[in-house]
Amino acid sequence: MHNPYDDPAVAALYDTFNPWAPCDDFYLDLVMDAPAALDAGCGTGLLLRTARAHGHTGHLVGLDPADAMLDIARSHTRDVHWTRGDLATHTWNGGFDLVTMTGHAFQELLTDTTTVQALTAMRTALNPGGLIAFETRNITARAWERWTPDHPWTGTLPDGRTVTDTHDARPITPQGLVTFTSTTTDADGHEILSTVSTLRFLATDHLDTLLAAAGLTVAERHGTWDRTPLTPASPEVITLARPA
Ligand SMILES: C[S@@+](CC[C@H](N)C(=O)[O-])C[C@H]1O[C@@H](n2cnc3c(N)ncnc32)[C@H](O)[C@@H]1O
């Protein structure tokens, strides 16, 4: 499956459009409490490099299949173990008190089979008493319907230039897949980059079936980053899970 994050041009723009946010505060608290943490789909590594900068002295591993993203992580610090790889195809034998999958990376798992493989991998990476934490956008809030050219995102590059990102999403498929084009333009409206991505939206009861198939049980479930309960209107389905 094509991974758009393998493209250095995509990786170079990632932090501009994904700056520190309340989701990162949520996960940072969990990482700071965990002696050893694995961030699967770590991307440019913002979560773990911030944990290190905040004084985390334990074992921090960031895993991602996209070298272009890891190159950015490495350019910030070598004081985190950045590893290239796919969560589901690594062999794990404990070692971590926390496994995270943040920034909606979980939605890049496009089938039941890959999702159960990934969740199983997260479970097998845990030490006894460990926790996994991830979020997926709430399917009932239908975020993709607002991924249209009339809802642009604007960001500022490190050199001060302004860039704009617009999405153009196709309708959701019966399998819950949403494919969208993401187009980045400069201040003059010239196209810098255009990518096509697919994400999966899962009904929460289906997610819970997949968690159970992976030997996991829900420990906490929230609908927003300030831990409000999940409702049909909640933007996120935030899950903390433990081995069943
Ligand atoms: C939207 S980015 C999120 C990055 C980071 N977690 C954040 O919050 O900024 C999704 C990342 O997941 C990675 N990814 C996709 N499939 C993966 C898999 N099977 N295992 C691990 N990482 C994966 C991509 O390469 C990409 O860097």
How many domains? 2
Report the span from N to C terminus: 31 Å
- Residue windows where pLDDT falls under 50 for at least 5 positions: none
Q: Can you list the ligands bound to this structure?
A: S-adenosylmethionine
Our Rg estimate from Cα atoms comes to 17 Å
Strand ordering within the main sheet: 3-2-1-4-5-11-10
Average predicted confidence as pLDDT: 96
What is the chain-wise order of helices and strands? HHEHEHEEHEEEEEHEE
What is the CATH homologous superfamily assignment of the largest domain? Vaccinia Virus protein VP39
What characteristic shape results from the CA principal axes?
Answer: globular
Q: Which CATH C-level class of the largest domain is it?
A: Alpha Beta
Count, helices? 6
Topology-level CATH name of the largest domain: Rossmann fold
The class by helix and strand makeup works out as alpha/beta
* Number of strand segments: 11
Give a verbal description of the structure:
The chain is α/β, with parallel strands linked by helices and 244 residues long. The protein has two domains: 4-139 and 201-243, Vaccinia Virus protein VP39 (Rossmann fold); 140-200. The chain is built from six helices and eleven strands. It has helices at 8-17, 22-32, 46-53, 67-76, 112-124, 204-213; strands at 36-40, 59-64, 81-84, 96-101, 126-137, 153-156, 162-169, 177-186, 191-200, 216-222, 236-243. A seven-stranded mixed sheet has the order 3-2-1-4-5-11-10, sandwiched between helices. Helix 2 packs across helix 3. The longest helix is centred in the middle third of the chain and has 13 residues, at 112-124. The protein is globular and about 55 Å long. The two termini are 31 Å apart. The model has no long low-confidence stretch (mean pLDDT 96). Bound molecules: S-adenosylmethionine (SAM).
